[in-house]
Amino acid sequence: MAKKTAVIDLGSNSVRMVIFERTSRYGFFICSEHKKKVRLGENAYNNNKILQEEAMLKAEKALAYFKEKALKEKCRKIIAVGTSALRDAPNAKDFINKIAKNVGLNIKCINGKTESFLGGLAALNLLSNVQNATTIDIGGGSTELCLIKEGKIVDCISLDLGTVRLKEIFYDTKRLNALDQFIQEALTQVPKHFQNDNIIAIGGSLRALSNSIMKKNSYPLKMIHNFSYSFEKEKSHIEKIQNAKNLIDFNIKKDRFDTIKEGCVIFLALAKNLKAKNIITSAVGVREGVFLSNLFQKYAKIKNDTTDFSKFNAKFPPNFNPSLKSLQDRFGIDYTDKSAYFANKLFEVFSPLHKIEASYKKDLINAAKLTHIGERINFYFANEHSAYMALNGLHFGFSHQEILLIWTLLKANGKKINPFGIEHIKALLPNHHILTWLNFILALANKLAKDSDENLEFVLKNHTLYIYSNKRKIYFSKEEIKKISKPKLIILAFNQKS
Predict the structure, then answer these.
(1) What is the pLDDT confidence band of residue 298, given thresholds at 50, 70 and 90?
(2) Most buried residue among 96, 121, 217, 249 by CB atoms closer than 10 A?
(3) Neighbouring-strand partners of residue 19
(4) What residue ranges in 261-315 does DSSP mark as E strands?
(5) DSSP state of 201
(6) Of 125, 156, 10, 158, whose CA–CA distance to 79 is shortest?
(7) 16, containing H or E segment
(8) Contact 373, 333 (CB under 8 A)
(9) Buried b (16+ CB within 10 A) or exposed e, 319-334
(10) Which residues contact 148 (CB under 8 A, 6 or more apart)?
(11) Of 46 and 27, more confident
(12) In this structure, what is the dihedral angle of CA atoms 154, 160, 161, 166, given to the nearest 10 degrees?
Protein backbone atom coordinates (compact mmCIF):
# COMPACT_ATOMS: atom_id res chain seq x y z
CA MET A 1 0.00 0.00 0.00
CA ALA A 2 1.22 3.51 -0.84
CA LYS A 3 2.87 5.57 1.90
CA LYS A 4 0.33 8.35 1.33
CA THR A 5 -3.25 7.52 0.36
CA ALA A 6 -6.09 9.95 -0.34
CA VAL A 7 -9.65 8.75 0.20
CA ILE A 8 -12.47 10.81 -1.29
CA ASP A 9 -16.07 10.30 -0.14
CA LEU A 10 -18.66 11.76 -2.51
CA GLY A 11 -21.82 12.04 -0.40
CA SER A 12 -25.25 13.53 -1.00
CA ASN A 13 -24.36 16.64 1.00
CA SER A 14 -20.57 17.05 0.95
CA VAL A 15 -17.44 15.85 -0.76
CA ARG A 16 -14.66 15.06 1.71
CA MET A 17 -11.08 13.96 1.30
CA VAL A 18 -8.77 12.57 3.97
CA ILE A 19 -5.07 11.99 3.36
CA PHE A 20 -3.49 9.19 5.37
CA GLU A 21 0.24 8.59 5.77
CA ARG A 22 1.57 5.22 6.80
CA THR A 23 4.60 5.16 9.10
CA SER A 24 4.96 1.35 9.21
CA ARG A 25 2.91 -1.75 8.37
CA TYR A 26 -0.05 -0.68 10.49
CA GLY A 27 1.04 2.65 11.95
CA PHE A 28 -0.55 5.71 10.33
CA PHE A 29 -1.82 9.21 10.94
CA ILE A 30 -4.04 11.72 9.13
CA CYS A 31 -2.04 14.39 7.26
CA SER A 32 -4.93 16.57 6.21
CA GLU A 33 -8.66 16.68 5.69
CA HIS A 34 -10.64 18.69 3.13
CA LYS A 35 -14.34 19.34 2.67
CA LYS A 36 -16.51 20.97 -0.01
CA LYS A 37 -20.24 21.30 0.45
CA VAL A 38 -21.46 20.62 -3.10
CA ARG A 39 -24.86 19.02 -2.31
CA LEU A 40 -24.71 16.43 -5.12
CA GLY A 41 -28.19 15.27 -4.20
CA GLU A 42 -29.67 18.78 -4.36
CA ASN A 43 -33.04 18.89 -6.15
CA ALA A 44 -32.63 15.22 -7.06
CA TYR A 45 -35.12 13.76 -4.58
CA ASN A 46 -37.97 15.77 -6.08
CA ASN A 47 -36.85 15.01 -9.65
CA ASN A 48 -36.94 11.21 -9.83
CA LYS A 49 -33.51 11.09 -8.09
CA ILE A 50 -31.80 12.42 -11.22
CA LEU A 51 -28.57 14.31 -10.50
CA GLN A 52 -28.93 17.93 -11.56
CA GLU A 53 -26.46 19.66 -13.88
CA GLU A 54 -25.51 22.41 -11.44
CA ALA A 55 -24.85 19.91 -8.64
CA MET A 56 -22.76 17.70 -10.92
CA LEU A 57 -20.71 20.69 -12.06
CA LYS A 58 -20.00 21.67 -8.43
CA ALA A 59 -18.98 18.10 -7.66
CA GLU A 60 -16.67 17.96 -10.69
CA LYS A 61 -14.90 21.17 -9.64
CA ALA A 62 -14.52 19.88 -6.08
CA LEU A 63 -13.10 16.55 -7.26
CA ALA A 64 -10.64 18.29 -9.57
CA TYR A 65 -9.52 20.49 -6.67
CA PHE A 66 -9.13 17.45 -4.37
CA LYS A 67 -7.10 15.55 -6.94
CA GLU A 68 -4.78 18.53 -7.33
CA LYS A 69 -4.35 18.73 -3.53
CA ALA A 70 -3.67 14.99 -3.30
CA LEU A 71 -0.99 15.13 -5.97
CA LYS A 72 0.65 18.15 -4.31
CA GLU A 73 0.80 16.16 -1.08
CA LYS A 74 2.49 13.35 -3.06
CA CYS A 75 -0.26 10.77 -2.64
CA ARG A 76 0.62 7.62 -4.53
CA LYS A 77 -2.94 6.35 -4.39
CA ILE A 78 -6.34 8.09 -4.64
CA ILE A 79 -9.51 6.13 -3.85
CA ALA A 80 -12.89 7.74 -4.58
CA VAL A 81 -16.24 6.30 -3.48
CA GLY A 82 -19.77 7.53 -4.05
CA THR A 83 -22.69 6.83 -1.71
CA SER A 84 -26.45 7.42 -1.55
CA ALA A 85 -27.08 10.19 -4.10
CA LEU A 86 -24.89 8.43 -6.65
CA ARG A 87 -26.32 4.94 -6.19
CA ASP A 88 -29.89 6.29 -6.35
CA ALA A 89 -29.42 8.31 -9.54
CA PRO A 90 -30.48 6.94 -12.95
CA ASN A 91 -27.75 9.09 -14.55
CA ALA A 92 -24.99 8.01 -12.15
CA LYS A 93 -23.01 6.17 -14.84
CA ASP A 94 -22.97 9.26 -17.05
CA PHE A 95 -21.62 11.33 -14.17
CA ILE A 96 -18.97 8.71 -13.24
CA ASN A 97 -17.81 8.51 -16.87
CA LYS A 98 -17.63 12.28 -17.11
CA ILE A 99 -15.46 12.49 -13.97
CA ALA A 100 -13.18 9.76 -15.31
CA LYS A 101 -12.76 11.65 -18.59
CA ASN A 102 -12.50 15.23 -17.28
CA VAL A 103 -10.82 14.73 -13.91
CA GLY A 104 -9.08 11.39 -14.24
CA LEU A 105 -10.68 9.88 -11.14
CA ASN A 106 -12.42 6.53 -11.05
CA ILE A 107 -15.35 6.69 -8.66
CA LYS A 108 -16.60 3.44 -7.18
CA CYS A 109 -20.30 3.61 -6.31
CA ILE A 110 -20.80 1.51 -3.16
CA ASN A 111 -24.10 0.03 -2.06
CA GLY A 112 -25.76 0.73 1.28
CA LYS A 113 -24.51 -2.37 3.02
CA THR A 114 -20.93 -1.72 1.98
CA GLU A 115 -21.22 1.85 3.22
CA SER A 116 -22.58 0.58 6.53
CA PHE A 117 -19.82 -2.02 6.82
CA LEU A 118 -17.04 0.49 6.14
CA GLY A 119 -18.33 2.82 8.87
CA GLY A 120 -18.53 -0.11 11.27
CA LEU A 121 -15.02 -1.28 10.36
CA ALA A 122 -13.62 2.17 11.16
CA ALA A 123 -15.49 2.42 14.47
CA LEU A 124 -14.51 -1.11 15.51
CA ASN A 125 -10.80 -0.45 14.98
CA LEU A 126 -10.41 3.23 15.80
CA LEU A 127 -12.68 3.77 18.80
CA SER A 128 -11.78 2.55 22.28
CA ASN A 129 -12.68 -1.03 23.17
CA VAL A 130 -15.79 -1.55 21.03
CA GLN A 131 -17.38 -4.90 21.85
CA ASN A 132 -21.15 -4.54 21.53
CA ALA A 133 -22.72 -1.57 19.77
CA THR A 134 -24.84 -0.40 16.85
CA THR A 135 -23.53 2.36 14.61
CA ILE A 136 -25.80 5.09 13.25
CA ASP A 137 -24.30 6.95 10.30
CA ILE A 138 -26.62 9.75 9.17
CA GLY A 139 -25.79 11.17 5.75
CA GLY A 140 -27.51 13.44 3.29
CA GLY A 141 -29.32 10.68 1.41
CA SER A 142 -29.33 7.66 3.68
CA THR A 143 -28.64 6.33 7.16
CA GLU A 144 -26.56 3.21 7.74
CA LEU A 145 -26.70 0.88 10.74
CA CYS A 146 -23.97 -1.64 11.55
CA LEU A 147 -24.33 -4.19 14.33
CA ILE A 148 -21.20 -5.14 16.28
CA LYS A 149 -21.30 -8.10 18.67
CA GLU A 150 -18.39 -9.44 20.69
CA GLY A 151 -15.98 -7.27 18.75
CA LYS A 152 -17.17 -8.39 15.31
CA ILE A 153 -19.44 -6.95 12.63
CA VAL A 154 -22.42 -9.27 12.28
CA ASP A 155 -25.04 -7.32 10.28
CA CYS A 156 -25.48 -4.16 8.19
CA ILE A 157 -28.48 -2.30 6.80
CA SER A 158 -29.12 0.95 4.96
CA LEU A 159 -32.24 3.12 5.25
CA ASP A 160 -33.52 5.81 2.89
CA LEU A 161 -33.40 8.36 5.69
CA GLY A 162 -31.07 11.27 5.01
CA THR A 163 -30.96 14.93 5.97
CA VAL A 164 -31.04 16.31 2.43
CA ARG A 165 -33.66 13.74 1.39
CA LEU A 166 -36.00 14.77 4.24
CA LYS A 167 -35.33 18.47 3.68
CA GLU A 168 -36.31 18.38 0.02
CA ILE A 169 -39.21 15.94 0.24
CA PHE A 170 -40.85 17.24 3.43
CA TYR A 171 -39.42 20.49 4.82
CA ASP A 172 -39.02 22.45 1.58
CA THR A 173 -42.45 21.34 0.34
CA LYS A 174 -44.17 21.98 3.71
CA ARG A 175 -45.33 18.34 3.90
CA LEU A 176 -44.34 17.84 7.53
CA ASN A 177 -47.62 16.06 8.27
CA ALA A 178 -46.37 13.13 6.19
CA LEU A 179 -42.88 13.04 7.73
CA ASP A 180 -43.67 10.92 10.77
CA GLN A 181 -45.30 8.18 8.70
CA PHE A 182 -42.30 8.13 6.33
CA ILE A 183 -39.90 7.67 9.24
CA GLN A 184 -42.03 5.02 10.92
CA GLU A 185 -42.17 3.02 7.70
CA ALA A 186 -38.39 3.18 7.45
CA LEU A 187 -38.02 2.01 11.05
CA THR A 188 -39.97 -1.16 10.28
CA GLN A 189 -36.95 -2.24 8.20
CA VAL A 190 -34.71 -2.29 11.30
CA PRO A 191 -34.53 -5.82 12.78
CA LYS A 192 -34.94 -6.04 16.56
CA HIS A 193 -31.49 -7.56 17.01
CA PHE A 194 -30.02 -4.13 16.15
CA GLN A 195 -31.31 -2.82 19.49
CA ASN A 196 -28.38 -1.93 21.71
CA ASP A 197 -27.46 -0.02 24.86
CA ASN A 198 -24.44 1.43 23.06
CA ILE A 199 -24.89 3.54 19.95
CA ILE A 200 -21.94 4.80 17.93
CA ALA A 201 -22.80 8.14 16.32
CA ILE A 202 -21.18 8.69 12.90
CA GLY A 203 -21.59 11.56 10.43
CA GLY A 204 -21.50 15.35 10.42
CA SER A 205 -24.94 15.89 11.94
CA LEU A 206 -24.25 13.66 14.94
CA ARG A 207 -20.81 15.16 15.48
CA ALA A 208 -22.48 18.60 15.52
CA LEU A 209 -24.89 17.40 18.22
CA SER A 210 -22.02 16.00 20.31
CA ASN A 211 -20.09 19.25 19.96
CA SER A 212 -23.13 21.17 21.17
CA ILE A 213 -23.48 18.87 24.20
CA MET A 214 -19.75 19.16 25.00
CA LYS A 215 -19.93 22.96 25.02
CA LYS A 216 -23.15 23.00 27.03
CA ASN A 217 -21.52 20.84 29.70
CA SER A 218 -18.14 22.67 29.57
CA TYR A 219 -16.43 19.40 28.74
CA PRO A 220 -12.68 19.78 29.48
CA LEU A 221 -11.25 18.04 26.42
CA LYS A 222 -11.60 19.43 22.89
CA MET A 223 -11.78 16.03 21.25
CA ILE A 224 -15.00 14.86 19.60
CA HIS A 225 -13.75 11.34 18.81
CA ASN A 226 -14.70 8.93 21.62
CA PHE A 227 -16.79 11.54 23.45
CA SER A 228 -19.77 9.78 25.05
CA TYR A 229 -22.97 10.87 26.73
CA SER A 230 -26.18 9.50 28.18
CA PHE A 231 -29.02 9.61 25.66
CA GLU A 232 -31.64 10.00 28.39
CA LYS A 233 -29.84 12.99 29.92
CA GLU A 234 -29.26 14.79 26.62
CA LYS A 235 -32.44 13.88 24.73
CA SER A 236 -34.21 17.11 25.74
CA HIS A 237 -31.22 19.16 24.53
CA ILE A 238 -31.38 17.46 21.13
CA GLU A 239 -35.13 18.10 21.01
CA LYS A 240 -34.48 21.78 21.71
CA ILE A 241 -32.07 21.92 18.77
CA GLN A 242 -34.69 20.27 16.57
CA ASN A 243 -37.21 23.00 17.43
CA ALA A 244 -34.81 25.94 17.81
CA LYS A 245 -35.29 29.22 15.96
CA ASN A 246 -31.74 30.41 16.64
CA LEU A 247 -29.22 27.59 16.26
CA ILE A 248 -26.28 29.81 17.19
CA ASP A 249 -27.49 29.60 20.79
CA PHE A 250 -26.73 25.86 20.65
CA ASN A 251 -23.21 26.20 19.19
CA ILE A 252 -24.25 24.73 15.85
CA LYS A 253 -22.01 25.82 12.98
CA LYS A 254 -23.64 27.75 10.14
CA ASP A 255 -22.89 25.11 7.52
CA ARG A 256 -25.18 22.75 9.49
CA PHE A 257 -28.11 25.13 9.86
CA ASP A 258 -30.02 23.84 6.84
CA THR A 259 -29.94 20.13 7.73
CA ILE A 260 -29.32 19.75 11.49
CA LYS A 261 -33.01 19.65 12.37
CA GLU A 262 -33.56 16.81 9.91
CA GLY A 263 -30.59 15.06 11.51
CA CYS A 264 -32.20 15.45 14.95
CA VAL A 265 -35.47 13.95 13.70
CA ILE A 266 -33.73 10.88 12.28
CA PHE A 267 -31.44 10.39 15.27
CA LEU A 268 -34.16 10.75 17.92
CA ALA A 269 -36.40 8.27 16.10
CA LEU A 270 -33.62 5.71 15.65
CA ALA A 271 -32.21 6.07 19.17
CA LYS A 272 -35.65 5.48 20.63
CA ASN A 273 -36.27 2.53 18.31
CA LEU A 274 -32.91 0.96 19.22
CA LYS A 275 -33.46 1.58 22.96
CA ALA A 276 -30.21 3.51 23.20
CA LYS A 277 -28.63 4.35 26.53
CA ASN A 278 -25.04 5.43 25.79
CA ILE A 279 -24.01 7.46 22.76
CA ILE A 280 -20.36 7.21 21.67
CA THR A 281 -19.23 9.79 19.12
CA SER A 282 -17.05 8.67 16.24
CA ALA A 283 -15.00 11.09 14.16
CA VAL A 284 -14.26 8.24 11.75
CA GLY A 285 -16.52 6.66 9.15
CA VAL A 286 -16.59 5.56 5.54
CA ARG A 287 -13.31 7.25 4.56
CA GLU A 288 -11.36 5.61 7.36
CA GLY A 289 -13.14 2.33 6.61
CA VAL A 290 -11.99 2.48 2.98
CA PHE A 291 -8.42 3.13 4.12
CA LEU A 292 -8.51 0.27 6.65
CA SER A 293 -10.01 -2.17 4.15
CA ASN A 294 -7.00 -1.48 1.95
CA LEU A 295 -4.59 -1.58 4.88
CA PHE A 296 -5.94 -4.95 5.99
CA GLN A 297 -6.34 -6.02 2.35
CA LYS A 298 -9.95 -6.89 3.08
CA TYR A 299 -12.44 -5.71 0.49
CA ALA A 300 -16.04 -5.67 1.59
CA LYS A 301 -18.21 -6.68 -1.38
CA ILE A 302 -21.52 -6.82 0.39
CA LYS A 303 -24.26 -7.58 -2.09
CA ASN A 304 -27.19 -9.21 -0.34
CA ASP A 305 -28.69 -10.25 2.96
CA THR A 306 -26.86 -13.59 2.99
CA THR A 307 -23.36 -12.05 2.98
CA ASP A 308 -20.96 -13.79 5.35
CA PHE A 309 -19.59 -10.83 7.28
CA SER A 310 -16.98 -12.93 9.10
CA LYS A 311 -14.76 -13.10 6.01
CA PHE A 312 -14.50 -9.31 5.93
CA ASN A 313 -13.88 -8.67 9.64
CA ALA A 314 -10.33 -7.49 10.25
CA LYS A 315 -8.65 -5.92 13.27
CA PHE A 316 -5.25 -4.71 14.32
CA PRO A 317 -2.95 -7.24 16.00
CA PRO A 318 -3.52 -7.74 19.77
CA ASN A 319 -2.13 -4.94 21.97
CA PHE A 320 -1.38 -2.80 18.93
CA ASN A 321 -2.45 0.82 18.50
CA PRO A 322 -1.91 2.69 15.20
CA SER A 323 -1.67 6.16 16.79
CA LEU A 324 0.88 5.11 19.41
CA LYS A 325 2.94 3.25 16.80
CA SER A 326 2.79 6.27 14.48
CA LEU A 327 4.18 8.55 17.20
CA GLN A 328 6.95 6.08 17.93
CA ASP A 329 7.80 5.77 14.24
CA ARG A 330 7.80 9.49 13.50
CA PHE A 331 9.86 10.53 16.48
CA GLY A 332 12.54 7.87 16.32
CA ILE A 333 11.84 5.97 19.50
CA ASP A 334 14.69 3.74 20.67
CA TYR A 335 13.01 0.34 20.83
CA THR A 336 15.86 -1.02 22.99
CA ASP A 337 14.85 1.40 25.77
CA LYS A 338 13.60 -0.57 28.78
CA SER A 339 11.27 2.03 30.30
CA ALA A 340 8.14 0.06 29.40
CA TYR A 341 9.79 -3.23 30.45
CA PHE A 342 10.71 -1.88 33.90
CA ALA A 343 7.31 -0.16 34.29
CA ASN A 344 5.59 -3.49 33.73
CA LYS A 345 7.82 -5.32 36.23
CA LEU A 346 7.54 -2.60 38.87
CA PHE A 347 3.75 -2.47 38.60
CA GLU A 348 3.59 -6.19 39.33
CA VAL A 349 6.16 -6.09 42.14
CA PHE A 350 4.40 -3.22 43.90
CA SER A 351 0.90 -4.67 43.42
CA PRO A 352 0.59 -5.90 47.06
CA LEU A 353 1.04 -2.29 48.17
CA HIS A 354 -0.76 -0.21 45.55
CA LYS A 355 -3.65 -2.66 44.91
CA ILE A 356 -4.48 -0.85 41.68
CA GLU A 357 -6.68 -2.51 39.03
CA ALA A 358 -4.63 -4.31 36.39
CA SER A 359 -6.30 -2.26 33.62
CA TYR A 360 -4.19 0.76 34.60
CA LYS A 361 -0.99 -1.14 33.78
CA LYS A 362 -1.76 -0.75 30.08
CA ASP A 363 -1.92 3.06 30.42
CA LEU A 364 1.31 3.04 32.43
CA ILE A 365 3.14 1.01 29.78
CA ASN A 366 1.82 3.20 26.95
CA ALA A 367 3.04 6.29 28.81
CA ALA A 368 6.44 4.62 29.19
CA LYS A 369 6.59 3.95 25.45
CA LEU A 370 6.13 7.67 24.77
CA THR A 371 8.20 9.10 27.58
CA HIS A 372 11.14 10.09 25.35
CA ILE A 373 9.37 11.46 22.26
CA GLY A 374 9.50 15.04 23.57
CA GLU A 375 13.29 14.92 23.45
CA ARG A 376 13.01 14.93 19.65
CA ILE A 377 11.69 18.49 19.88
CA ASN A 378 13.91 19.86 22.63
CA PHE A 379 15.76 18.30 25.56
CA TYR A 380 14.60 21.15 27.82
CA PHE A 381 11.04 20.58 29.07
CA ALA A 382 11.04 17.30 27.15
CA ASN A 383 8.39 15.86 29.48
CA GLU A 384 5.98 18.68 28.58
CA HIS A 385 6.63 18.14 24.89
CA SER A 386 5.96 14.41 25.31
CA ALA A 387 2.73 15.15 27.18
CA TYR A 388 1.52 17.56 24.49
CA MET A 389 2.29 15.12 21.68
CA ALA A 390 0.47 12.30 23.47
CA LEU A 391 -2.56 14.50 24.13
CA ASN A 392 -2.81 15.49 20.47
CA GLY A 393 -1.46 12.36 18.82
CA LEU A 394 -3.25 9.47 20.56
CA HIS A 395 -6.36 9.97 18.47
CA PHE A 396 -7.36 6.41 17.62
CA GLY A 397 -8.19 3.58 20.00
CA PHE A 398 -7.82 5.52 23.26
CA SER A 399 -10.62 6.71 25.53
CA HIS A 400 -10.51 10.29 26.79
CA GLN A 401 -9.76 8.99 30.28
CA GLU A 402 -6.76 7.01 28.99
CA ILE A 403 -5.40 9.95 26.99
CA LEU A 404 -5.64 12.35 29.93
CA LEU A 405 -4.05 9.84 32.31
CA ILE A 406 -1.09 9.34 29.96
CA TRP A 407 -0.82 13.13 29.52
CA THR A 408 -0.82 13.65 33.30
CA LEU A 409 1.88 11.03 33.92
CA LEU A 410 4.16 12.33 31.17
CA LYS A 411 3.75 15.93 32.28
CA ALA A 412 4.41 15.15 35.98
CA ASN A 413 7.63 13.28 35.15
CA GLY A 414 8.05 12.04 38.71
CA LYS A 415 7.34 15.36 40.39
CA LYS A 416 4.47 15.71 42.83
CA ILE A 417 1.21 16.09 40.89
CA ASN A 418 -0.30 19.52 41.48
CA PRO A 419 -4.03 19.06 42.22
CA PHE A 420 -4.78 22.57 40.98
CA GLY A 421 -3.07 21.83 37.66
CA ILE A 422 -5.52 19.02 36.92
CA GLU A 423 -8.65 20.45 38.55
CA HIS A 424 -10.33 21.03 35.16
CA ILE A 425 -9.97 17.37 34.16
CA LYS A 426 -10.30 15.79 37.61
CA ALA A 427 -13.58 14.07 36.74
CA LEU A 428 -11.88 12.14 33.92
CA LEU A 429 -8.86 11.01 35.96
CA PRO A 430 -8.45 8.22 38.53
CA ASN A 431 -8.09 9.11 42.22
CA HIS A 432 -5.01 10.60 43.85
CA HIS A 433 -3.78 7.24 45.16
CA ILE A 434 -3.66 5.75 41.64
CA LEU A 435 -2.06 8.87 40.12
CA THR A 436 0.64 8.97 42.79
CA TRP A 437 1.59 5.33 42.35
CA LEU A 438 1.59 5.37 38.54
CA ASN A 439 3.61 8.59 38.50
CA PHE A 440 6.17 7.05 40.86
CA ILE A 441 6.46 3.77 38.96
CA LEU A 442 6.84 5.50 35.57
CA ALA A 443 9.51 7.90 36.83
CA LEU A 444 11.42 5.09 38.56
CA ALA A 445 11.26 2.93 35.45
CA ASN A 446 12.58 5.80 33.33
CA LYS A 447 15.49 6.49 35.66
CA LEU A 448 16.46 2.82 35.84
CA ALA A 449 16.21 2.42 32.05
CA LYS A 450 18.39 5.48 31.54
CA ASP A 451 21.27 4.10 33.58
CA SER A 452 20.95 0.38 33.03
CA ASP A 453 20.22 -1.76 29.99
CA GLU A 454 20.37 -5.00 31.95
CA ASN A 455 17.54 -7.03 33.40
CA LEU A 456 17.44 -5.73 36.94
CA GLU A 457 15.80 -7.82 39.61
CA PHE A 458 13.24 -6.41 42.04
CA VAL A 459 12.27 -7.86 45.40
CA LEU A 460 9.67 -6.27 47.69
CA LYS A 461 9.93 -6.93 51.41
CA ASN A 462 7.41 -5.10 53.56
CA HIS A 463 7.71 -1.49 52.28
CA THR A 464 11.24 -1.76 50.89
CA LEU A 465 12.03 -2.42 47.24
CA TYR A 466 15.41 -4.08 46.76
CA ILE A 467 16.92 -3.44 43.33
CA TYR A 468 19.59 -5.94 42.37
CA SER A 469 22.14 -5.22 39.65
CA ASN A 470 25.20 -6.92 38.18
CA LYS A 471 26.82 -3.56 37.56
CA ARG A 472 27.95 -0.65 39.66
CA LYS A 473 26.50 1.72 37.05
CA ILE A 474 23.11 1.70 38.76
CA TYR A 475 24.79 3.59 41.62
CA PHE A 476 24.75 6.80 39.63
CA SER A 477 20.90 6.81 39.44
CA LYS A 478 20.49 7.11 43.19
CA GLU A 479 20.58 10.89 43.43
CA GLU A 480 18.09 11.28 40.59
CA ILE A 481 15.83 8.62 42.03
CA LYS A 482 15.72 10.40 45.38
CA LYS A 483 14.00 13.33 43.64
CA ILE A 484 11.03 11.22 42.54
CA SER A 485 7.79 11.88 44.40
CA LYS A 486 7.05 8.61 46.22
CA PRO A 487 4.00 7.17 47.91
CA LYS A 488 4.34 7.18 51.69
CA LEU A 489 6.43 4.53 53.45
CA ILE A 490 8.34 3.40 50.33
CA ILE A 491 12.05 2.71 50.71
CA LEU A 492 14.42 1.88 47.85
CA ALA A 493 17.53 -0.18 48.41
CA PHE A 494 20.23 -0.86 45.80
CA ASN A 495 22.25 -4.03 45.93
CA GLN A 496 24.89 -5.46 43.69
CA LYS A 497 24.54 -9.18 43.08
CA SER A 498 27.19 -11.25 44.75
Answers:
(1) low
(2) 121
(3) 6, 32
(4) 278-281
(5) E
(6) 10
(7) strand 15-22
(8) yes
(9) eebbbbbbbbebbebe
(10) 120, 123, 124, 130, 131, 132, 133, 134, 135, 154, 200
(11) 27
(12) 170
